[in-house]
Amino acid sequence: MSHIFAAPESLVAAAMDLQSMGSALGVANDAAAGATTGVLAAGADEVSTAVAALFSGHARDYQTLSAQVAAFHQQFVQTLTAAGAAYAAAEAANASPLQAVEQQILGWINAPTMALLGRPLIGDGANATAPGQAGGAGGLLFGNGGSGGPGGAGGDAGLIGNGGNGGSGAALGMFGGKGGNGGLLYGNGGAGGASGTALAGPGLAGGAGGHAGGLFGNGGSGGAAGDAGANSPNADGGAGGAGGRGGWLFGDGGAGGAGGGGGGGFPTGAGGAGGAGGNGGWLSGSGGFGGAGGAGGTGGVGGPGGAGGTGGHSGWLFGNGGAGGAGGFTTTGNDGGLGGAGGDAGLIGAGGAGGAGGNATANFAGGDGGTGGVGGRGGWLFGDGGTGGAGGFATLASSGGHGGAGGAGGLIGTGGAGGAGGTGGLLFPATTGGTGGTGGVGGTGGWLFGAGGAGGTGGAGGATAFNTTDLTAGAGGAGGAGGAAGLIGNGGAAGGGGAGGEAAAATATGGAGGLGGTGGVGGSLIGAGGAGGTGGAGGIGTGIVAAVGGDGGGGGAGGNARLIGVGGAGGTGGSGGIGGGLTAAVGGDGGGGGIGGNAALIGEGGAGGAGGMGGTGTDPGDGGDGGAGGSGGSLFGSPGGRGPDG
């Protein structure tokens, strides 16, 4: 017995195409009718008249035949359209009975497991609605877990399926629910629920993300934490929920949730820590990002910002480490939060970047910026280290945060660059501007092959306020040292020192420039030393009367070579600040050049750095001395030349 299969959508589409074709042919026939049915004779003779009459007659016959064909075409289109509508109506009529049959069959299949375990074999778990109620579990064979009610956990999946999302407690001031776990074979973990703001007391932790399935899937993201009670004293913000783990074979870890803000009572509370990122799958997968730290409480002397969450580690074989979360900021008189450390890679992959330190923004009492997080380690076999996080900045007479160190490379890989130091705060109400943060140290290069990471730049010093006198702006932060190489590779270049703060008031002195960092040591077998960092420029004097420029920072020493390789060049000294004012404008002295790095066995010594130029003014500053060159190799190599004076 033969069967006919019809697709109603295709029949309707074909009818529409035929309708368009008929319309186009009708327009063409109408356009040609006038010129072809009344052909003029080429001359007045009988032959020309007969030929014209013959062609005109053929054209009239064609128009008659075309009208008959158009009528048949229209009838065919109508029949085809009606057939498509009839098939569609038949399918719609059969849909409800088929769905009912499907539900009956699923009911028979699920009946034994529902009776024994209260759980279907195939089907999604029910979504919860009541506060604190967990979502239903998914089918044992196939099905997703249900979402939790407010504050309730998400349901777990069975063999194949995604975990349900944890319920949010934000509207009712409750904890966020934990995300459900993915299926044992395949499935993603559910997201953790966000927590609500506490009516009083500490903030509530965010819900943790659910873990991925046994073999494949991504971990769920952690929920955001709740803020502490608005007027509660010593009440810290809640911690962000941790991200879920990726599948055992493949899958990325979930991101951590953000920390909650501290309470505003007296004394105020600290911001909550960000949640840690979930680890990647055991075989392959990247770690999740760490959550951002919460803001410190406001009111009186504010609480410190919360620390950023740690980035998740990658899978054992492949994958990158997750980035650390940023530290939380603070607004009144306390320190910014620490940046979270980047996650480590497994066998092959890059380390995660460290999170930035939190900023210390204040209206009347300053705090220091937070220190940046350390970069994660590169893969054991191959991979670069993660970049260190930048230090947070300060706003009032406090120091900027230090940059985080770069992560080490693996067996083969470059060390991560150190993070930049944060900017120091403005001089108010103290007598000295805030010092810029120190740049982070570059990461160590791969044990077998790889260059050391570059050092971070020092932060700029804080300026003086325009309405103060006889005060000193903040000094620039020192540059970070370059990372050392492993067996074969060059040492990392050092970071430059930060510029000194500006002397914006009369008789004020600009801040000294920060020292340049020391270049990294070259490879233990082969490799050149890294270049020393440039000294920071001295702060310029912009006050109307007798503003003194700050001295330039000294250049950093070049890195030494260990066996075969040239020493690194010394860094250039920073230039002295320009003196300001209409009278007695004193320029700052230039910084000295850095010493060149030494060669060990075979190689040239590094050249000394040039001295910085003295600052201009009615009483200009002195130039800095050039740095001495490094010594040449004991077996072969000449010493480096002395740098020129400024």
TrEMBL record:
Protein name, UniProt field: PE domain-containing protein
Gene3D superfamilies: HP0062-like domain (1.10.287.850)
PE domain span: 5-94
Region (Disordered): 608-646
Membrane spanning stretches: none
